[in-house]
User: Fold this.
Amino acid sequence: MGNRIMLNPLQKRFKYHFTGNKQTNVLNKPEWYLTQVLMWIGNHAKFLDDKIQPILDKAGSSVNAGLEFSRALVMLILEKLAADIPCLLYDDALFCHLVDEVLLFERELYSVHGYLSSFPSCMHILSEESCFQRWLTVEKKFALQKMDSMLSSEAAWVSQYKDITDVDEMKVPDCAETFMTLLLVITDRYKNLPTASRKLQFLGLQKELVDDFRIRLTQVMKEETRASLGFRYCAILNAVNYIATVLADWADNVFFLQLQQAELEVCAESNTVSKLQLGQLASMESSVFDEMINLLERLKHDMLTRQVDHVFREVKDAAKLYKKERWLSLPSQAEQAVMSLSSTACPMLLTLRDRLLQLEQQLCHSLFKIFWQMLAEKVDLYIYQEIIMENHFNEGGAAQLQFDMSRNLFPLFSHYCKRPENYFKHIKEACVILNLNVGSALLLKDVLQSASENEPTLNPNQPSATAALNELGVYKLAQKDVEILLNLRASWPNTGK
Assistant:
Protein backbone atom coordinates (compact mmCIF):
# COMPACT_ATOMS: atom_id res chain seq x y z
CA MET A 1 0.00 0.00 0.00
CA GLY A 2 2.83 2.40 1.00
CA ASN A 3 4.62 1.61 -2.24
CA ARG A 4 1.51 2.35 -4.28
CA ILE A 5 1.05 5.73 -2.61
CA MET A 6 4.68 6.61 -3.35
CA LEU A 7 4.60 5.29 -6.91
CA ASN A 8 1.44 7.08 -8.05
CA PRO A 9 2.89 10.59 -8.37
CA LEU A 10 6.12 9.24 -9.90
CA GLN A 11 4.21 7.32 -12.55
CA LYS A 12 2.22 10.45 -13.36
CA ARG A 13 5.39 12.54 -13.63
CA PHE A 14 7.03 9.93 -15.85
CA LYS A 15 4.07 9.87 -18.25
CA TYR A 16 3.83 13.67 -18.20
CA HIS A 17 7.48 14.19 -19.14
CA PHE A 18 8.19 11.19 -21.36
CA THR A 19 5.03 10.69 -23.45
CA GLY A 20 3.12 13.00 -25.77
CA ASN A 21 4.51 16.25 -27.18
CA LYS A 22 6.67 17.36 -24.27
CA GLN A 23 10.18 18.67 -24.98
CA THR A 24 11.56 16.03 -22.64
CA ASN A 25 10.10 13.25 -24.80
CA VAL A 26 12.66 12.97 -27.61
CA LEU A 27 13.87 9.81 -29.29
CA ASN A 28 17.54 10.81 -29.24
CA LYS A 29 17.66 11.25 -25.44
CA PRO A 30 16.70 7.91 -23.83
CA GLU A 31 19.22 8.71 -21.05
CA TRP A 32 16.79 11.36 -19.72
CA TYR A 33 14.10 8.90 -18.65
CA LEU A 34 16.56 6.13 -17.77
CA THR A 35 18.56 8.45 -15.47
CA GLN A 36 15.35 9.82 -13.94
CA VAL A 37 14.23 6.32 -12.92
CA LEU A 38 17.67 5.50 -11.45
CA MET A 39 17.53 8.75 -9.43
CA TRP A 40 14.06 7.91 -8.07
CA ILE A 41 15.23 4.41 -7.09
CA GLY A 42 18.35 5.82 -5.39
CA ASN A 43 16.53 8.68 -3.64
CA HIS A 44 13.85 6.41 -2.14
CA ALA A 45 16.11 3.49 -1.16
CA LYS A 46 16.91 4.67 2.40
CA PHE A 47 13.31 5.61 3.20
CA LEU A 48 12.01 2.26 1.90
CA ASP A 49 14.61 0.28 3.86
CA ASP A 50 14.28 2.27 7.10
CA LYS A 51 10.54 3.01 7.21
CA ILE A 52 8.55 0.71 4.93
CA GLN A 53 10.51 -2.56 5.15
CA PRO A 54 10.20 -2.90 8.98
CA ILE A 55 6.38 -2.54 8.65
CA LEU A 56 6.29 -5.30 6.01
CA ASP A 57 8.58 -7.51 8.12
CA LYS A 58 6.38 -6.98 11.18
CA ALA A 59 3.31 -7.99 9.17
CA GLY A 60 5.10 -11.22 8.18
CA SER A 61 5.27 -10.24 4.50
CA SER A 62 8.06 -11.64 2.32
CA VAL A 63 7.94 -8.59 0.02
CA ASN A 64 11.11 -6.52 -0.39
CA ALA A 65 9.92 -2.91 -0.50
CA GLY A 66 12.97 -1.56 -2.36
CA LEU A 67 12.92 -4.23 -5.05
CA GLU A 68 9.16 -3.97 -5.61
CA PHE A 69 9.49 -0.20 -5.92
CA SER A 70 12.27 -0.68 -8.50
CA ARG A 71 10.25 -3.27 -10.40
CA ALA A 72 7.27 -0.93 -10.73
CA LEU A 73 9.49 1.85 -12.13
CA VAL A 74 11.24 -0.54 -14.53
CA MET A 75 7.81 -1.49 -15.89
CA LEU A 76 7.39 2.17 -16.91
CA ILE A 77 10.64 1.95 -18.87
CA LEU A 78 9.61 -1.29 -20.57
CA GLU A 79 6.38 0.36 -21.76
CA LYS A 80 8.36 3.38 -22.95
CA LEU A 81 10.88 1.20 -24.84
CA ALA A 82 8.12 -0.86 -26.45
CA ALA A 83 6.60 2.39 -27.77
CA ASP A 84 9.87 4.03 -28.88
CA ILE A 85 11.82 1.18 -30.47
CA PRO A 86 9.61 0.78 -33.61
CA CYS A 87 10.15 4.52 -34.31
CA LEU A 88 13.96 4.32 -34.33
CA LEU A 89 14.54 0.78 -35.52
CA TYR A 90 15.96 1.88 -38.88
CA ASP A 91 18.00 4.84 -37.72
CA ASP A 92 21.34 3.19 -36.91
CA ALA A 93 22.74 6.05 -34.86
CA LEU A 94 19.60 6.50 -32.73
CA PHE A 95 19.08 2.78 -32.26
CA CYS A 96 22.73 2.19 -31.30
CA HIS A 97 22.58 5.07 -28.82
CA LEU A 98 19.42 3.64 -27.26
CA VAL A 99 21.05 0.20 -26.84
CA ASP A 100 24.15 1.79 -25.27
CA GLU A 101 22.07 3.75 -22.77
CA VAL A 102 19.87 0.76 -21.92
CA LEU A 103 22.95 -1.38 -21.24
CA LEU A 104 24.41 1.31 -18.94
CA PHE A 105 21.06 1.56 -17.16
CA GLU A 106 20.90 -2.22 -16.68
CA ARG A 107 24.44 -2.36 -15.34
CA GLU A 108 23.71 0.26 -12.67
CA LEU A 109 20.33 -1.25 -11.85
CA TYR A 110 21.89 -4.62 -11.03
CA SER A 111 25.24 -3.59 -9.59
CA VAL A 112 24.18 -0.57 -7.50
CA HIS A 113 20.54 -1.25 -6.66
CA GLY A 114 20.60 -5.07 -6.41
CA TYR A 115 17.82 -5.64 -8.95
CA LEU A 116 17.00 -9.34 -9.41
CA SER A 117 17.64 -11.17 -12.68
CA SER A 118 14.29 -12.96 -12.26
CA PHE A 119 12.45 -9.60 -12.55
CA PRO A 120 11.32 -8.05 -15.85
CA SER A 121 14.19 -6.17 -17.51
CA CYS A 122 15.04 -4.11 -20.58
CA MET A 123 16.95 -7.10 -21.95
CA HIS A 124 13.63 -8.85 -22.55
CA ILE A 125 12.57 -5.99 -24.84
CA LEU A 126 15.96 -6.02 -26.66
CA SER A 127 15.57 -9.80 -27.10
CA GLU A 128 12.31 -9.53 -29.05
CA GLU A 129 12.88 -10.77 -32.61
CA SER A 130 12.70 -7.59 -34.71
CA CYS A 131 14.63 -5.55 -32.15
CA PHE A 132 17.23 -8.27 -31.56
CA GLN A 133 17.97 -8.84 -35.25
CA ARG A 134 18.38 -5.09 -35.71
CA TRP A 135 20.74 -5.00 -32.72
CA LEU A 136 22.85 -7.79 -34.21
CA THR A 137 22.97 -6.04 -37.59
CA VAL A 138 23.95 -2.68 -36.12
CA GLU A 139 26.53 -4.30 -33.80
CA LYS A 140 28.14 -6.01 -36.80
CA LYS A 141 28.07 -2.84 -38.91
CA PHE A 142 29.79 -0.72 -36.25
CA ALA A 143 32.29 -3.46 -35.42
CA LEU A 144 33.32 -3.70 -39.11
CA GLN A 145 33.70 0.07 -39.28
CA LYS A 146 35.95 -0.01 -36.22
CA MET A 147 38.00 -2.81 -37.78
CA ASP A 148 38.46 -0.70 -40.92
CA SER A 149 39.70 2.25 -38.92
CA MET A 150 41.98 0.22 -36.62
CA LEU A 151 43.72 -1.46 -39.58
CA SER A 152 44.13 1.77 -41.53
CA SER A 153 45.52 3.66 -38.54
CA GLU A 154 49.14 4.81 -38.75
CA ALA A 155 49.85 3.05 -35.45
CA ALA A 156 48.11 -0.20 -36.49
CA TRP A 157 51.25 -2.34 -36.38
CA VAL A 158 53.06 -0.64 -33.51
CA SER A 159 52.75 -1.90 -29.94
CA GLN A 160 51.59 0.84 -27.59
CA TYR A 161 53.78 -0.75 -24.89
CA LYS A 162 56.91 -1.05 -27.06
CA ASP A 163 59.01 0.93 -24.58
CA ILE A 164 57.87 -1.06 -21.53
CA THR A 165 59.55 -4.47 -21.81
CA ASP A 166 57.69 -6.04 -18.86
CA VAL A 167 54.29 -5.27 -20.40
CA ASP A 168 55.31 -5.85 -24.02
CA GLU A 169 56.19 -9.53 -23.72
CA MET A 170 53.79 -10.50 -26.52
CA LYS A 171 54.74 -7.50 -28.74
CA VAL A 172 51.06 -7.04 -29.63
CA PRO A 173 50.40 -4.50 -32.40
CA ASP A 174 47.79 -1.88 -31.61
CA CYS A 175 45.23 -3.19 -34.14
CA ALA A 176 45.17 -6.68 -32.55
CA GLU A 177 44.79 -5.31 -29.03
CA THR A 178 42.03 -2.92 -30.14
CA PHE A 179 40.26 -5.78 -31.93
CA MET A 180 40.28 -8.06 -28.88
CA THR A 181 39.05 -5.15 -26.72
CA LEU A 182 36.20 -4.73 -29.23
CA LEU A 183 35.27 -8.43 -28.84
CA LEU A 184 35.46 -8.08 -25.05
CA VAL A 185 33.11 -5.08 -25.12
CA ILE A 186 30.65 -7.04 -27.31
CA THR A 187 30.72 -9.91 -24.77
CA ASP A 188 30.03 -7.43 -21.99
CA ARG A 189 27.07 -6.03 -23.93
CA TYR A 190 25.31 -9.35 -24.54
CA LYS A 191 26.26 -11.41 -21.48
CA ASN A 192 23.09 -10.43 -19.56
CA LEU A 193 20.66 -11.46 -22.31
CA PRO A 194 17.94 -13.62 -20.77
CA THR A 195 18.23 -16.66 -23.07
CA ALA A 196 21.12 -18.87 -24.16
CA SER A 197 19.88 -18.92 -27.77
CA ARG A 198 20.25 -15.12 -28.03
CA LYS A 199 23.73 -15.27 -26.47
CA LEU A 200 24.72 -17.97 -28.98
CA GLN A 201 23.66 -15.69 -31.84
CA PHE A 202 26.00 -13.01 -30.49
CA LEU A 203 28.75 -15.62 -30.10
CA GLY A 204 28.20 -16.43 -33.78
CA LEU A 205 28.73 -12.74 -34.58
CA GLN A 206 31.98 -12.72 -32.59
CA LYS A 207 33.21 -15.77 -34.52
CA GLU A 208 32.32 -14.04 -37.80
CA LEU A 209 34.32 -10.98 -36.74
CA VAL A 210 37.35 -13.10 -35.76
CA ASP A 211 37.24 -14.82 -39.14
CA ASP A 212 36.89 -11.50 -40.94
CA PHE A 213 39.86 -10.09 -39.02
CA ARG A 214 41.92 -13.21 -39.79
CA ILE A 215 41.17 -12.82 -43.51
CA ARG A 216 42.18 -9.13 -43.37
CA LEU A 217 45.43 -10.04 -41.61
CA THR A 218 46.07 -12.70 -44.29
CA GLN A 219 45.54 -10.12 -47.05
CA VAL A 220 47.99 -7.66 -45.46
CA MET A 221 50.44 -10.54 -44.88
CA LYS A 222 50.31 -11.49 -48.59
CA GLU A 223 51.34 -7.94 -49.49
CA GLU A 224 54.36 -8.39 -47.21
CA THR A 225 55.54 -11.84 -48.32
CA ARG A 226 58.52 -10.38 -50.20
CA ALA A 227 59.69 -8.94 -46.88
CA SER A 228 58.93 -11.87 -44.59
CA LEU A 229 61.53 -10.73 -42.05
CA GLY A 230 60.29 -7.13 -42.12
CA PHE A 231 58.70 -5.22 -39.26
CA ARG A 232 55.11 -5.37 -40.55
CA TYR A 233 55.21 -9.09 -41.37
CA CYS A 234 56.46 -9.81 -37.83
CA ALA A 235 53.76 -7.53 -36.38
CA ILE A 236 51.06 -9.49 -38.27
CA LEU A 237 52.50 -12.74 -36.94
CA ASN A 238 52.48 -11.36 -33.38
CA ALA A 239 48.86 -10.28 -33.92
CA VAL A 240 47.79 -13.75 -35.11
CA ASN A 241 49.54 -15.38 -32.14
CA TYR A 242 47.97 -12.93 -29.64
CA ILE A 243 44.42 -13.44 -30.91
CA ALA A 244 44.80 -17.25 -30.83
CA THR A 245 46.25 -17.08 -27.28
CA VAL A 246 43.46 -14.83 -25.95
CA LEU A 247 40.72 -16.97 -27.54
CA ALA A 248 42.25 -20.07 -25.93
CA ASP A 249 42.16 -18.26 -22.56
CA TRP A 250 38.54 -17.20 -23.08
CA ALA A 251 37.58 -20.79 -23.86
CA ASP A 252 38.23 -21.61 -20.16
CA ASN A 253 36.09 -18.71 -18.94
CA VAL A 254 32.90 -19.78 -17.09
CA PHE A 255 30.69 -17.65 -19.36
CA PHE A 256 31.97 -19.32 -22.55
CA LEU A 257 31.89 -22.78 -20.93
CA GLN A 258 28.19 -22.20 -20.21
CA LEU A 259 27.69 -21.17 -23.84
CA GLN A 260 29.50 -24.33 -24.92
CA GLN A 261 27.03 -26.36 -22.87
CA ALA A 262 24.13 -24.45 -24.46
CA GLU A 263 25.61 -25.03 -27.93
CA LEU A 264 25.91 -28.73 -27.13
CA GLU A 265 22.22 -28.91 -26.25
CA VAL A 266 21.21 -27.07 -29.44
CA CYS A 267 23.43 -29.33 -31.59
CA ALA A 268 22.12 -32.48 -29.90
CA GLU A 269 18.53 -31.44 -30.65
CA SER A 270 19.16 -30.44 -34.27
CA ASN A 271 21.60 -33.29 -35.18
CA THR A 272 23.85 -30.78 -36.97
CA VAL A 273 27.15 -32.30 -35.79
CA SER A 274 28.63 -35.79 -35.68
CA LYS A 275 28.63 -37.96 -32.57
CA LEU A 276 32.40 -37.48 -32.34
CA GLN A 277 32.05 -33.67 -32.28
CA LEU A 278 29.25 -33.94 -29.72
CA GLY A 279 31.49 -36.14 -27.58
CA GLN A 280 34.34 -33.64 -27.81
CA LEU A 281 32.06 -30.75 -26.88
CA ALA A 282 30.56 -32.69 -23.98
CA SER A 283 33.95 -33.78 -22.62
CA MET A 284 35.26 -30.19 -22.95
CA GLU A 285 38.04 -31.46 -25.25
CA SER A 286 37.10 -28.73 -27.69
CA SER A 287 35.85 -25.20 -27.11
CA VAL A 288 33.48 -22.72 -28.74
CA PHE A 289 36.49 -21.01 -30.37
CA ASP A 290 38.31 -24.16 -31.60
CA GLU A 291 37.59 -23.62 -35.28
CA MET A 292 38.88 -20.03 -35.11
CA ILE A 293 41.95 -21.02 -33.08
CA ASN A 294 42.84 -23.82 -35.53
CA LEU A 295 42.68 -21.45 -38.52
CA LEU A 296 44.82 -18.88 -36.71
CA GLU A 297 47.34 -21.55 -35.67
CA ARG A 298 47.58 -22.74 -39.28
CA LEU A 299 48.22 -19.17 -40.45
CA LYS A 300 50.82 -18.73 -37.69
CA HIS A 301 52.59 -21.94 -38.73
CA ASP A 302 52.58 -20.95 -42.43
CA MET A 303 54.01 -17.52 -41.64
CA LEU A 304 56.72 -18.92 -39.37
CA THR A 305 57.62 -21.55 -41.96
CA ARG A 306 58.00 -18.80 -44.57
CA GLN A 307 60.37 -16.91 -42.26
CA VAL A 308 62.41 -20.02 -41.44
CA ASP A 309 62.67 -20.91 -45.14
CA HIS A 310 63.83 -17.37 -45.96
CA VAL A 311 66.59 -17.41 -43.35
CA PHE A 312 67.54 -20.98 -44.22
CA ARG A 313 67.99 -20.01 -47.90
CA GLU A 314 70.30 -17.20 -46.78
CA VAL A 315 72.26 -19.60 -44.55
CA LYS A 316 72.66 -22.13 -47.39
CA ASP A 317 73.80 -19.38 -49.71
CA ALA A 318 76.35 -18.18 -47.15
CA ALA A 319 77.56 -21.78 -46.57
CA LYS A 320 78.66 -22.43 -50.18
CA LEU A 321 82.37 -21.87 -49.46
CA TYR A 322 82.19 -23.85 -46.22
CA LYS A 323 80.69 -26.75 -48.13
CA LYS A 324 83.78 -26.78 -50.39
CA GLU A 325 86.29 -26.67 -47.51
CA ARG A 326 89.25 -29.06 -48.01
CA TRP A 327 88.35 -31.34 -45.11
CA LEU A 328 90.68 -34.05 -46.35
CA SER A 329 93.87 -32.01 -46.14
CA LEU A 330 93.53 -29.77 -43.09
CA PRO A 331 96.39 -29.69 -40.53
CA SER A 332 95.89 -31.68 -37.35
CA GLN A 333 95.45 -30.04 -33.93
CA ALA A 334 99.04 -30.88 -33.03
CA GLU A 335 100.23 -28.85 -36.03
CA GLN A 336 98.33 -25.73 -34.94
CA ALA A 337 99.26 -23.50 -32.00
CA VAL A 338 95.62 -22.48 -31.43
CA MET A 339 92.52 -23.68 -33.22
CA SER A 340 90.48 -20.96 -34.88
CA LEU A 341 87.18 -20.78 -36.72
CA SER A 342 87.28 -21.75 -40.42
CA SER A 343 87.22 -18.52 -42.40
CA THR A 344 84.75 -20.12 -44.83
CA ALA A 345 82.27 -20.64 -41.94
CA CYS A 346 82.15 -16.91 -41.08
CA PRO A 347 79.52 -15.81 -43.66
CA MET A 348 77.17 -18.62 -42.60
CA LEU A 349 77.54 -17.93 -38.86
CA LEU A 350 77.24 -14.15 -39.29
CA THR A 351 74.04 -14.60 -41.30
CA LEU A 352 72.64 -16.84 -38.57
CA ARG A 353 73.65 -14.47 -35.78
CA ASP A 354 72.21 -11.37 -37.46
CA ARG A 355 68.89 -12.99 -38.33
CA LEU A 356 68.48 -14.50 -34.86
CA LEU A 357 69.10 -11.11 -33.24
CA GLN A 358 66.71 -9.38 -35.64
CA LEU A 359 63.84 -11.82 -35.12
CA GLU A 360 64.38 -12.01 -31.37
CA GLN A 361 63.66 -8.27 -31.30
CA GLN A 362 60.66 -8.41 -33.64
CA LEU A 363 58.83 -11.59 -32.58
CA CYS A 364 57.30 -12.28 -29.20
CA HIS A 365 59.10 -14.82 -27.01
CA SER A 366 56.87 -17.84 -27.76
CA LEU A 367 57.03 -17.28 -31.54
CA PHE A 368 60.77 -16.70 -31.54
CA LYS A 369 61.24 -19.96 -29.63
CA ILE A 370 59.37 -21.88 -32.34
CA PHE A 371 61.32 -19.98 -35.03
CA TRP A 372 64.82 -20.75 -33.75
CA GLN A 373 63.99 -24.39 -33.03
CA MET A 374 62.61 -24.89 -36.57
CA LEU A 375 65.68 -23.15 -38.00
CA ALA A 376 68.09 -25.19 -35.85
CA GLU A 377 66.47 -28.42 -37.08
CA LYS A 378 66.92 -27.41 -40.74
CA VAL A 379 70.52 -26.22 -40.23
CA ASP A 380 71.35 -29.43 -38.37
CA LEU A 381 70.10 -31.61 -41.22
CA TYR A 382 71.67 -29.40 -43.90
CA ILE A 383 75.18 -29.44 -42.41
CA TYR A 384 74.87 -33.17 -41.70
CA GLN A 385 73.56 -34.21 -45.11
CA GLU A 386 75.13 -31.62 -47.44
CA ILE A 387 78.49 -30.98 -45.77
CA ILE A 388 79.41 -33.90 -43.52
CA MET A 389 77.98 -36.79 -45.55
CA GLU A 390 79.26 -35.30 -48.84
CA ASN A 391 82.94 -35.07 -47.78
CA HIS A 392 85.82 -37.15 -46.45
CA PHE A 393 87.73 -36.05 -43.36
CA ASN A 394 91.32 -36.48 -42.22
CA GLU A 395 92.10 -36.07 -38.52
CA GLY A 396 92.59 -32.29 -38.88
CA GLY A 397 89.38 -31.91 -40.89
CA ALA A 398 87.30 -33.77 -38.27
CA ALA A 399 88.83 -31.70 -35.43
CA GLN A 400 88.19 -28.45 -37.36
CA LEU A 401 84.55 -29.41 -38.01
CA GLN A 402 84.04 -30.17 -34.31
CA PHE A 403 85.64 -26.85 -33.31
CA ASP A 404 83.50 -24.89 -35.78
CA MET A 405 80.32 -26.56 -34.56
CA SER A 406 80.81 -26.91 -30.79
CA ARG A 407 82.68 -23.63 -30.21
CA ASN A 408 80.94 -21.40 -32.76
CA LEU A 409 77.64 -22.71 -34.18
CA PHE A 410 76.13 -24.15 -30.99
CA PRO A 411 76.98 -21.08 -28.82
CA LEU A 412 74.94 -18.88 -31.19
CA PHE A 413 71.87 -20.60 -29.72
CA SER A 414 73.08 -20.62 -26.10
CA HIS A 415 71.16 -17.39 -25.38
CA TYR A 416 67.92 -19.31 -25.98
CA CYS A 417 68.54 -22.61 -24.17
CA LYS A 418 70.99 -24.23 -21.76
CA ARG A 419 72.16 -27.07 -24.02
CA PRO A 420 71.99 -25.88 -27.65
CA GLU A 421 73.89 -28.98 -28.88
CA ASN A 422 70.72 -30.99 -28.18
CA TYR A 423 69.09 -29.19 -31.12
CA PHE A 424 71.93 -30.28 -33.42
CA LYS A 425 72.04 -33.99 -32.68
CA HIS A 426 73.00 -35.10 -36.19
CA ILE A 427 76.01 -32.76 -36.23
CA LYS A 428 77.01 -33.46 -32.62
CA GLU A 429 76.93 -37.26 -33.05
CA ALA A 430 78.64 -37.15 -36.47
CA CYS A 431 81.48 -35.15 -34.87
CA VAL A 432 81.76 -37.81 -32.14
CA ILE A 433 82.17 -40.57 -34.76
CA LEU A 434 84.60 -38.58 -36.94
CA ASN A 435 86.78 -37.65 -33.96
CA LEU A 436 87.06 -41.10 -32.33
CA ASN A 437 90.65 -42.17 -31.84
CA VAL A 438 91.72 -44.89 -34.25
CA GLY A 439 91.48 -47.74 -31.75
CA SER A 440 87.92 -46.88 -30.67
CA ALA A 441 86.88 -46.36 -34.30
CA LEU A 442 88.24 -49.80 -35.31
CA LEU A 443 86.50 -51.44 -32.37
CA LEU A 444 83.20 -49.74 -33.21
CA LYS A 445 83.55 -50.76 -36.86
CA ASP A 446 83.99 -54.40 -35.83
CA VAL A 447 80.98 -54.30 -33.49
CA LEU A 448 78.73 -52.76 -36.18
CA GLN A 449 80.00 -55.15 -38.84
CA SER A 450 79.30 -58.17 -36.60
CA ALA A 451 75.82 -56.84 -35.85
CA SER A 452 75.09 -56.36 -39.58
CA GLU A 453 76.31 -59.84 -40.51
CA ASN A 454 74.10 -61.44 -37.85
CA GLU A 455 71.01 -59.38 -38.79
CA PRO A 456 69.16 -62.13 -40.69
CA THR A 457 69.26 -64.36 -37.57
CA LEU A 458 67.80 -63.46 -34.19
CA ASN A 459 70.02 -60.37 -33.92
CA PRO A 460 71.96 -61.51 -30.84
CA ASN A 461 74.62 -58.79 -31.30
CA GLN A 462 72.24 -55.93 -32.10
CA PRO A 463 71.88 -54.79 -28.47
CA SER A 464 75.66 -54.65 -28.15
CA ALA A 465 75.82 -52.41 -31.28
CA THR A 466 73.20 -50.07 -29.80
CA ALA A 467 74.93 -50.21 -26.43
CA ALA A 468 78.30 -49.40 -28.05
CA LEU A 469 76.79 -46.35 -29.80
CA ASN A 470 74.98 -45.17 -26.65
CA GLU A 471 78.19 -45.46 -24.69
CA LEU A 472 79.78 -42.98 -27.11
CA GLY A 473 76.78 -40.63 -26.75
CA VAL A 474 75.23 -41.56 -30.09
CA TYR A 475 71.44 -41.99 -29.84
CA LYS A 476 70.01 -40.21 -32.87
CA LEU A 477 72.01 -41.69 -35.76
CA ALA A 478 71.01 -45.04 -37.21
CA GLN A 479 73.60 -47.85 -37.32
CA LYS A 480 73.90 -47.59 -41.13
CA ASP A 481 74.59 -43.85 -40.90
CA VAL A 482 77.37 -44.49 -38.38
CA GLU A 483 78.91 -47.05 -40.74
CA ILE A 484 78.88 -44.46 -43.56
CA LEU A 485 80.47 -41.87 -41.24
CA LEU A 486 83.24 -44.31 -40.28
CA ASN A 487 83.96 -44.78 -43.98
CA LEU A 488 84.29 -40.99 -44.39
CA ARG A 489 87.32 -41.05 -42.11
CA ALA A 490 90.36 -40.83 -44.37
CA SER A 491 93.10 -42.26 -42.16
CA TRP A 492 92.82 -45.93 -41.27
CA PRO A 493 95.91 -47.94 -40.27
CA ASN A 494 96.77 -50.98 -42.37
CA THR A 495 95.43 -53.83 -40.23
CA GLY A 496 96.17 -56.52 -42.81
CA LYS A 497 92.48 -57.14 -43.45
Summary: The mean pLDDT is 91.
